[in-house]
Amino acid sequence: QTAVADAPAPDKEYTFAIIKPDAVEAGHADAIFAKLAEAGFRVAAQNEMTLSREQAEAFYGEHKDKPFFENLVTFMTSGPIKVLVLSAPDAIKAWRELIGPTNTEIARADKPESLRALFGTDQTANALHGSDSSSSAMREINFFFDGWAYDNMPAETNFAVITPE
Ligand code: UDP
């Protein structure tokens, strides 16, 4: 399968999100679902799970040489998460905007209305994940929802894209 990462902006786009263990544990999931709906996102698919160490290491593989990698994997496997496929116009960029800066302290200082400012804990436990590009969104959706993209993404989405060979 091949992906075209930079297709023209469509009316509807998909992104991948995680409600991380700190936010699930703190009971913030319902408030987060309310905020994302209010911001115009639709939940296209969701699942609740607890990541294995192998899954967390694979998902965050691009960070394996970073000093925070061990902390991140320990945190992400510490309890249940909710994995979501979200749709909206310009979903990838819009969701990154809504969640705000990676570090919760910076989010609280610079973007107090952002979801990480409202629901995060610190620079690791920051409540939410969001794909940073079209190619990441596709990889991440397929990582957690095997085959979902192939069955559900209409040709006019940014993943048009996913062309079975
Ligand atoms: N992270 C961390 N320490 C850092 C930077 C990142 O623990 O100094 C964690 C944090 O949970 C973040 C994740 O690693 O969300 C992935 O980092 P990335 O730089 O990709 O940030 P994101 O794209 O999630 O904002």
Q: Care to give the gist of this entry?
A:
The protein is of the alpha+beta class and 165 residues long. The protein contains nine helices and four strands, in the order E-H-H-E-H-H-E-H-H-H-E-H-H. 41% of the residues lie in helices and 16% in strands.
Characterization of this structure:
ATP binds at residues 20, 68, 96, 102, 116, 126. This is Nucleoside diphosphate kinase-like domain-containing protein. The radius of gyration is 15 Å and the shape is globular. Residues 1-10 and 157-165 have low confidence and may be disordered. It is built from nine helices and four strands. Helix content is 41%, strand content 16%. It has a single domain, classed as Alpha-Beta Plaits, CATH 3.30.70.141. Strands 2-3-1-4 form a four-stranded antiparallel β-sheet, with helices on both faces. The protein has helices at 21-25, 29-38, 53-59, 69-76, 91-99, 104-110, 115-119, 134-144, 148-152, and strands at residues 13-19, 42-49, 81-88, 128-130. It is α+β, with helices and mostly antiparallel strands and 165 residues long.
